[in-house]
Every structure is written in structure tokens, then in C-alpha cells.
Design goal:
This protein is 28% helix and 26% strand. By secondary structure, the protein is an alpha+beta fold.
């Protein structure tokens, strides 16, 4: 039987330094690019011995694990950054216009609802959006 893993969302930190010697409890001191110092537990180290360039992954549920760079970079991709306040306003205006225009509305009708000047629209991530040049 085949299985597929559920998507994992969390934070990842690149390891920029690994201490030369393990601690007495077999843990290891790591330095992470965004978090500073971190102690990898002996349980984490049973799975793999980290090297510079590997990652510490912290899932949304708090579970933490080490991941080799090649595996991490093949399996994970960054989430898009949230839009700026100005762009968020434009996106909200666009979504309101789509709702007001109704199902199956043409892009021209949506632009009119958005208050966009004629022929001022573009495509962003395969989603047409109203630009910030409004006639109203």
C-alpha cells in the first residue's frame, strides 16, 4: 500500500555552526541562522549528525527535528510572504469586486467594480488583480 505524507508547515533554520565536541549528555550545540544558539538533543542526533548547511525544522505543533540540506531543499519551499498593507488593500478591493460582480463575471466587469481605469489590470500568480490606479 502506498502512502503520502501530509503537508508540514513550520519554521526552518539553517545550521551555520556545529560544535566540535558533543556535550556530556550526548547533545550538541548548534548555531542557527535566525535563532542563535540551539542544543540538539541526543534523540535528534540518533537520527542524523548535523553539519553546517543542514536545517532544524520546527513544525506548527512544536515538534522539532534535524533535516539534511539536500532532503530539506528537495521537499520544502518557502511560503509566500504576506502582502504589504498597500497590496493587501488592493487584493481586498479586488476580492470585493469579484464578489460584487458575481459568478462568471468578465475581467472587464470586475475591473469596473474595482474602479480601475480602462485597460489597467494585470495578472499576479495566475490571478488577475486590480492595480492601485483607481478612478474612484
Amino acid at each position: 500500500m502506498k502512502y503520502q505524507a501530509n503537508p508540514v508547515i513550520g519554521d526552518a533554520f539553517k545550521i551555520v555552526h556545529v560544535a566540535d565536541k558533543a556535550n556530556a549528555d550526548y547533545s550538541a550545540n548548534l548555531t542557527l541562522d535566525d535563532e542563535g544558539g540551539y542544543i540538539a538533543t541526543s534523540a535528534m542526533l540518533e537520527r542524523m549528525v548535523p553539519v553546517v548547511g543542514d536545517y532544524l525544522v520546527r513544525q506548527e505543533d512544536g515538534y522539532e527535528y534535524l533535516n539534511p540540506a539536500a532532503v530539506f531543499e528537495r521537499k520544502y519551499s518557502p511560503l509566500e510572504t504576506p502582502p504589504s498593507p498597500e497590496n493587501q488593500h488592493i487584493l481586498e478591493k479586488y476580492h470585493d469586486a469579484v464578489d460584487d460582480a458575481g459568478p462568471g463575471a468578465s475581467q472587464q466587469k470586475i475591473n469596473e467594480r474595482c474602479g480601475v481605469l480602462p485597460a489597467i489590470s494585470c495578472s499576479f500568480s495566475n490571478m488577475p488583480i486590480c492595480l492601485s490606479i483607481f478612478s474612484k
